[in-house]
UniProtKB/TrEMBL annotation, chain A:
GO MF annotation: an example: carboxylate reductase activity
Record's protein name: Aldehyde dehydrogenase iron-sulfur subunit
Pfam families recorded: Fer2, Fer2_2
E.C. numbers: 1.2.99.6
Major enzyme class: oxidoreductase
The keyword Iron-sulfur belongs to this UniProt entry's keyword annotation: yes
Taxonomic placement: Bacteria, Pseudomonadati, Pseudomonadota, Alphaproteobacteria, Sphingomonadales
Every 2Fe-2S ferredoxin-type domain range: 43-119
InterPro entries linked: 2Fe-2S-bd, 2Fe-2S-bd_dom_sf, 2Fe-2S_ferredoxin-like_sf, 2Fe-2S_ferredoxin-type, 2Fe2S_fd_BS, Aldehyde_Oxdr_Iron-Sulfur, Beta-grasp_dom_sf, TAT_signal
Annotated Gene Ontology cellular component terms: periplasmic space
Domain of life: Bacteria
Protein's organism: Qipengyuania algicida
Entry keyword annotation includes Disulfide bond: no
PANTHER family listed in its UniProt record: ALDEHYDE OXIDOREDUCTASE IRON-SULFUR-BINDING SUBUNIT PAOA, OXIDOREDUCTASE, IRON-SULPHUR BINDING SUBUNIT-RELATED-RELATED
Keywords of the record: 2Fe-2S, Iron, Iron-sulfur, Metal-binding, Oxidoreductase
TrEMBL record, chain B:
InterPro entries linked to this entry: Ald_Oxase/Xan_DH_a/b (IPR000674), Ald_Oxase/Xan_DH_a/b_sf (IPR036856), Ald_Oxase/xanthine_DH-like (IPR016208), AldOxase/xan_DH_MoCoBD1 (IPR008274), AldOxase/xan_DH_MoCoBD2 (IPR046867), AldOxase/xan_DH_Mopterin-bd_sf (IPR037165), PaoC-like (IPR049648)
UniProt domain Aldehyde oxidase/xanthine dehydrogenase a/b hammerhead: residue ranges: 32-138
Domain of life of the native organism: Bacteria
A Pfam family: MoCoBD_1
Name by which UniProt lists this protein: Molybdopterin-dependent oxidoreductase
Species per Swiss-Prot/TrEMBL record: Qipengyuania algicida
Classification via PANTHER family: ALDEHYDE OXIDOREDUCTASE MOLYBDENUM-BINDING SUBUNIT PAOC (PTHR11908:SF123), XANTHINE DEHYDROGENASE (PTHR11908)
GO molecular function: iron ion binding; oxidoreductase activity
Length: 208, 730
């Protein structure tokens, strides 16, 4: 590296930080003391996924997302960023939605996980899946499983009276208004831009 | 089949399936997570290993050393393909930046290694153990600084320069004049599915299960990049998690997976990690635009010029933002020019409506500014200057053009008459409210496309073509086309796409996919009609297909009696189209609220009225347009790849820092399609619509912000920091 990279400045630090995110900028001298040949730690974990129990022994670094996609071959849950920035990996854990990429599988001993495959099948769609088809609430389909899992959880959150940033009345009965749903869905990016249709699909399900 | 004159097929007199709002046939798969995308194809080949790509840590220079020792010893590692141990791969007609190999670094995050291991976690950990040292070189990263030395574009998507009459003289003498600059930043496609590939070798034959918009281009490119014959390559891409131009071309995922699979002697799967995508792959280049308009006192445009400066790693072709200006407004004396300079940033290439998308952000704001100067309503100003033939080439007639209707009908629906011409004069509590309008133009290109249609012997039909569905709805419109032509209900038609083993289609790009690929399916159906007619001894001119039966010459034969008859057909478009300007048009409307204290901008309403030929499936076509309007909202209000002009890369290379619209940003969106089939376009009288939707909503939003506040921001994106010191006094 030339000395430009050694000059300490906020920008320089940012640049180095950004590079290290993509694993490309390790100094030539040994950076850490860790032995590169050490076997990765393995740990047993029992998960219930869509009602079926799985006993797995996993590299402890395995995310819940990769456990689903690579080990259980449940590829309905998508990897869009692997950083908790896009929402494509949203699943329900014990009824609550999470970004499965931000969670290690071994943290979920005994948990009940529901993925998009657990909500419905092509022959027997969940009402939310059906509403998405009816309203064309998707295009490429890659964010769709995450949108659907989030949408199901959002309506449940509203039913249970969990407040959001835009809830105006914290003590009254919470309503699934357009803005209330949109606020809560904002962690699920859809680059094809199906938002307007997703809001309509959700409204249809919310109205029953 | 050559399409060499206006379409008159009787099929179109009373269509039963085409043109009807139709739910996607792939919808149940996509909504249940059972549609398989590239990285998910566990079933196609056993024993897949994981590849992890490493990107260069400098923007320009040379690798002096790569220490791979620790990575090679790391647990689970099967093979490492490293730039220092590999000759540079070949290039292709579709790639500019080097994809892999050798010590030379041409842009930041250029792929320099791929680590293959038994698991993803092991591959990632080992990749982090590779230590690379570089000898950086100075590079050029600042477009504004080098723009003055830019030269006319070479080999881009549109005319580098066009002239008619004497622009300078007429502009100089014009009664009213506007001369303004606008800038648009670098943008990223940011499709939700990262580029991904599974590669497997069987002897010298390579199969890639990948995510690519253009199967045949992909096959040709891989052959050229890897120096193997095309017929040894199979590309398969049935589901694609978004592309927007970013997956038109083979990228490092496919190249690295193929090389890694060879090195590992087993199939390898590679997904480009999200933080790598923004700098490793392509982007829409930034532009600097200058628009000059001269009118007479009544507002008739006499002189118009649009110039654009952009940069690219090639220094040859960039982002030609002048592309629409030759088509849009009258004016006898005119010029456009697109200048390109060399930059050492990652490769710039096509993103949804290349040229025209940012072009409208300049031109259609300039039109708004000129209308205001003249004291005219911006809709009336546009209509006054509607040309009779293509303004830059007056000998070219319009095939169908209903832009005036788009603007008029849009204005009525949107309540345009309530707009106050004086900016910053409408309030709603803390919000300053404004309306904006823009015209929209995008060309309607079509290209050669083939398909095979086969009867299954059970009363159904199957269509196969290498066409792709990138979210556009290809599966469904292709099924609709075959159902219509064969007199079948939609559910009797199955469609298989995206495999290079199938007939070569137009692919998905440039808004040509829907119109071209359905024309190809139509051509195959006409071939099948001929074979059936021959088999049954019916005159092909009188044969009819209704309710699963063939009718003619006094016979009625169920399709199920015909066995497994099949035909391949191809549509080719004749030269006659060159005499016409065939485009798609829109009136875009937007209402925004701007917080009078903070400058926060919220979109309140959006409307697009589109004139885009026969709409094959209004349900999915509407989704194309609202999706493009959403991407337009991003381009106008938030999207910007921030260039680090010292280190030469895009700083905000992930989905948290490269901001795209989310649910909270987008209200209900209205889309209206005019019923305007265009017989000059294709046998089905169809055109594309997916790019029209991003041509203009940008400027409509920008013009609405101005109408709300009286602040004109000409440097996109329009963010509150550019407005807050100019907001009207409270």
């Amino acid at each position: 590296m030339d000395d430009r990279d050694l000059a300490v400045s906020r920008r320089g630090v940012l640049a180095a930080g950004a590079a290290s995110v993509a694993v490309s900028q390790v100094p030539l001298s040994r950076a850490g003391a860790a032995d590169s040949t050490a076997k990765p730690a393995q740990q047993a974990v029992r998960l219930s996924v869509n009602g079926k129990a799985h006993d797995l022994t996993l590299d402890t670094r395995t995310t819940l997302l990769d456990t689903l996609r690579e080990h259980l071959q449940l590829t309905g849950t998508k990897k869009g960023c692997d950083h908790g920035q896009c929402g494509a990996c949203t699943v329900l854990v014990n009824g609550q939605r999470i970004n499965s990429c931000l969670s290690l599988a071994v943290m979920h001993q005994g948990d009940e996980v529901t993925t998009v495959e657990g909500l419905g099948t092509p022959d027997k769609l969940h009402p939310m899946q059906h509403a998405f088809v009816e309203h064309d609430a998707y295009q490429c389909g890659y964010c769709t499983p995450g949108q659907i899992c989030s949408a199901v959880a959002v309506l449940d959150e509203i039913r249970k009276g969990v407040p959001s940033h835009v809830t105006s009345d914290l003590t009254g009965t919470m309503q699934p208004t357009n803005i209330e749903m949109r606020e809560r869905m904002s962690g699920n990016i859809c680059r094809c831009g199906a938002y307007s249709n997703i809001a309509e699909a959700m409204a249809q399900v919310a109205e029953g | 089949m050559e399409f060499n004159g206006p379409s008159q097929d009787a099929i179109l007199t009373d269509p039963k399936v085409i043109g009807k709002s139709t739910r996607r046939i792939d919808g149940p798969l996509k909504t249940t997570g059972t549609a398989p995308y590239a990285y998910e194809r566990h079933d196609v080949v056993p024993n897949q290993a994981y590849g992890y790509v490493l990107g260069a840590g400098i923007a320009k220079g040379r690798i002096t050393a790569m220490n791979l020792e620790d990575a090679r010893k790391a647990p689970g590692v099967i093979a490492i393909v490293a730039a220092t141990e590999h000759e540079p791969v070949g290039s292709s007609d579709f790639n500019h930046a080097p994809l892999f190999g050798g010590r030379k670094i041409a842009h930041y995050h250029q792929a320099i290694a791929c680590v293959v291991a038994e698991t993803f976690e092991e591959a990632r950990a080992a990749a982090a153990m590779i230590r690379t040292s570089y000898e950086p070189e100075d590079g050029t990263y600042d477009l504004a600084k080098v723009a003055p030395s830019a030269e006319l574009e070479k080999g881009g998507w549109g005319d580098a320069r066009s002239d008619r009459g004497d622009f300078e003289a007429t502009f100089g003498a014009a009664a009213e004049k506007l001369d303004q600059h606008y800038t648009t930043p670098d943008e990223s496609h940011a499709m939700m599915e990262p580029m991904a590939t599974i590669a497997a070798w069987d002897g010298d034959r390579l199969t890639v299960w990948t995510s690519n918009q253009m199967i045949n281009w992909g096959k040709e490119s891989l052959a050229s990049i890897l120096s193997i014959p095309e017929d040894k390559i199979r590309v398969d891409s049935p589901y694609i998690g978004g592309g927007f131009g970013g997956k038109l071309f083979v990228r490092a995922d496919a190249v690295m997976a193929a090389l890694a699979a060879k090195a590992a002697k087993r199939p390898v799967k590679v997904m480009l990690q999200r933080p790598l995508i923004f700098n490793n792959t392509t982007h829409r280049p930034a532009t600097i635009q200058r628009v000059r308009i001269g009118t007479d006192k009544q507002g008739r445009i006499q002189a118009i010029a649009h110039e654009c400066w952009s940069g690219n790693i090639t220094g040859q072709d960039g982002e030609n933002a002048t592309a629409q200006t030759n088509h849009m407004y009258a004016g006898d004396d005119r010029m456009t020019a697109s200048y390109v300079t060399q930059l050492d940033l990652p490769e710039g290439n096509a993103m949804r409506a290349p040229g025209e998308a940012p072009g409208h952000m300049g031109l259609e704001v300039a039109i708004d500014e000129m209308a205001e100067k003249l004291g005219m309503d911006p809709i009336e100003f546009r209509i006054l200057n509607e040309p009779k033939t293509m303004p830059a080439h007056p000998d070219r007639k319009f095939s169908e053009r209903h832009l005036v209707r788009c603007l008029r009908e849009g204005g009525e629906r949107f309540g345009w008459s309530k707009r106050q011409a004086k900016p910053a004069s409408v309030s709603d509590g803390r919000w300053l409210v404004g309306m904006g309008v823009s015209a929209g133009f995008r060309g309607a290109p079509t290209t050669k496309s083939a398909a095979r249609v086969a009867l299954d012997g059970n009363g159904g039909a199957k269509v196969t073509t290498d066409m792709t569905d990138i979210g556009t709805g290809s599966y469904t419109i292709i099924a609709q086309t075959a159902a219509e032509c064969l007199g079948l209900p939609l559910e009797k038609v199955s469609v298989v796409l995206g495999d290079s083993a199938f007939p070569v289609s137009s692919g998905s790009g440039g808004q040509w996919g829907a119109a071209s690929s359905t024309a190809g399916v139509y051509a195959a159906c006409i071939e099948l009609h001929r074979s059936i007619a021959q088999k049954l001894g019916i005159d092909p001119q009188t044969i009819r297909f209704e309710d699963g039966r063939v009718i003619g010459a006094g016979k009625t034969v169920p399709l199920s009696d015909l066995g497994q008859l099949a035909a391949t057909g191809e549509i080719d478009f004749g030269d006659y189209k060159k005499g016409y300007d065939i485009g798609t048009y829109a009136g875009h409307f937007c209402e925004v609220g701007v917080d009078r204290y903070t400058g926060e901008i919220r979109i309140r309403r959006m409307l697009a009225v589109c004139d885009a030929g026969r709409i094959l499936n209004p349900l999915s076509a509407r989704s194309q347009v609202i999706g493009a309007m959403t991407m337009a909202a991003g381009a106008t209000l938030m999207e910007e790849l921030a260039v680090d002009k010292r280190f030469g890369y895009f700083v905000n290379h992930d989905l948290a820092s490269y901001e795209v619209p989310v649910h909270a940003d987008i209200p209900h969106q209205e889309v209206v399609f005019l019923d305007t089939p265009d017989p000059y376009s294709t046998p089905l009288q169809a055109k594309g619509v997916g790019e029209l939707g991003i041509c203009g909503p940008t400027a409509a939003i920008a013009n609405a912000v101005y109408n709300a506040t009286g602040i004109r921001v000409r440097e996109y994106p329009i963010t509150l920091d550019k407005m807050i010191d100019q907001l009207p006094q409270v």
